[in-house]
Amino acid sequence: MLLLSVLLLMSQAKGAHLECGIRPIFEGGPRYSRIIEGMEAEVGEFPWLVSIQARNEHFCGGTIINEWWIVTAAHCLFNEELVPTDLSVVLGTGNLQSPSLDIKGVSSIIIHKDFKKPSMDNDIALLLLNSRITFSGLKEPICMPRKASPATWRECWVAGWGQTKTDDRNSMKTDLMKVPMILMDWEKCSKLFPKLTKNMLCAGYENESYDACQRRASRLHHRV
């Protein structure tokens, strides 16, 4: 099943959009709109980020990797009652209350065969969309590293939609939020978190009010 999934992913990618990681609308620069425990993302800053929804309610984030595929966390989809037709993917916006949303259906869910929920090891999954993404300045694929070298990575952003305060449902943000993180030494981090596996990264921030693990928050790490 895994081999079939990889072959399908490769076949769908042939003749695909050749550029990745580009942000034609986002101009960069220190234009942050700082809010409590995070920052609002600028328009077009994370054009590969999508909202995964069930019954029109956001519950997890995902990332565009090509015209057909979204990568996300396996724990978001690890539910026997969840079927592809329950899901929709919202693309090209940082505001989930925008009057004009680009919404795609899902035709297939593929969860890593070795995903282990108690430890969250191999926490990765793929969604196959039911129609092709038309790329624009607000919808672009992220670059996938040809060879992962986490030992050389230093900084990243955690971005997504979710609660900005622990156990406060009223703090749920419909605007895309971002938090800067520093990647920490794996060996040191594993002493603090014994369940950490070699398939995981460890990231933190000196301001402890910044966090990416609030209940119902769904965020993805994007390396700088």
UniProtKB/TrEMBL annotation:
InterPro entries associated with the record: Peptidase_S1_PA, Peptidase_S1_PA_chymotrypsin, Peptidase_S1A, Trypsin_dom, TRYPSIN_HIS
Top-level division of the source organism's lineage: Eukaryota
Organism whose genome encodes this protein: Rhinolophus ferrumequinum (Greater horseshoe bat)
Signal sequence range: 1-15
GO biological process, one term: proteolysis
The UniProt record lists the keyword rRNA-binding: no
Keyword Signal tagged: yes
Example of a GO MF term: serine-type endopeptidase activity
SMART domains attached to this UniProt entry: Tryp_SPc
Keyword line: Disulfide bond, Hydrolase, Protease, Serine protease, Signal
Full protein name: Serine protease 55
Domain (Peptidase S1): residue spans on this chain: 35-214
